[in-house]
Amino acid sequence: MQIVKDQYFEGERPFYTCRDGLYLENVVIGPGESSIKEGANIEAVKCEFKGKYPFWECDNFTVRDCIFREGARAALWYTRGCKMYNTLVEAPKMFRRIEDVYLENVRIPNAQETFWDSKDIKLRGVYTADANYIFMHCENLDIDGYELHGNYSFQYVKNAVIRNANLQTKDAFWESENMTIYDSVINGEFLAWYSRNLRLVRCHIGGTQPLCYCENLVLEDCTFEPDADLAFEYSSVTARVNGHITSVKNPRSGRIEADSIGEIILDSNIKAPGNCEILTRNV
After folding, report:
1. Spatial distance between the Cα atoms of 175 and 220, rounded to a whole number of angstroms
2. Is residue 206 part of a domain?
3. Residue 55 lies in a domain
4. I need a surface site. Which of 1, 65, 90, 94 has the fewest CB within 10 A?
5. Nearest-CA neighbor of 207 among 231, 184, 183?
């Protein structure tokens, strides 16, 4: 085990291929590239990363109480077995093609193009902003206590459970598969189009034209904002909604139940089988 404390490094690959154990504490990694590339069994505590690509092709490492400055862009790619706690990530394009990652109390205020083509991800108490296209093509997500600001999120995701989230995002969950979301706020236009096996439980939904072209969509005890109009077009859906839905348009099949619905649009463009049952409790 190599132990390094209270030092500054820059340039190319100062800790390249350290695979027998590396402990960094209060270390600054300055300008340069690939500082810890191809490493394994690493722990970084109270460190600051300013150079590009520090953790590429790394295995089994822990990052605690650290800062990734904007210059540390694309810091974690092609990694396996990452744990990150109490860390500020200012750098974009983080977490690409990774496996087995756990984040707790992590803030990513510049999360552009973050979490792409990755799997086996667990997040607890994570905040992301400016997060366009986050979680593109990811699999096996376990997320709790998450706040998201950014559009086109969770597209093409497979196998995910999300709890207690505040998701401010349009075009979310497009072509996703096997997702369940509990006790969350989801606000944004064109929610979950072309999704398969999406289940929403006690969620609050806002934004125009939500949940269209869905296959095997399930809503349990959800609520809708007034702007969530023209819902369920061409979807196969089983929905139990508490409160009012502004409008429902041409659902393909299933059952929709709500306290009230302002407008039900069934026109010549409806798709077969066109036999969705629509019920209102207060009429």
Report:
1. 21
2. no
3. yes
4. 1
5. 231
Cα 188 from Cα 137, distance rounded (Å): 20
- The reply to whether 6 falls in a domain is yes
Q: What is the arithmetic mean of pLDDT over 132-144? A: 98
Phi-psi sector, 273: left (phi>0), alpha (psi -120 to 50), beta: alpha
Q: Is residue 149 a contact partner of residue 128, using CB atoms and an 8 Å limit?
A: yes
Tell me which residue range forms the domain holding 2. 1-110
Number of domains in the chain: 1
Per-residue pLDDT tens digits for 148-188: 999 999 999 999 999 999 999 999 999 999 999 999 999 99
Query: Which pLDDT band, with edges at 50, 70 and 90, does 1 fall under?
Result: confident
What is the C-alpha separation between 51 and 63, in angstroms, rounded? 16
Residue 198 lies in a domain: no
Q: What is the pTM of this model?
A: 0.95
CB within 8 Å of 140: residues ≥ 6 apart: 119, 120, 121, 158, 159, 160
Assign 283 a pLDDT band (cuts: 50, 70, 90). Answer: low
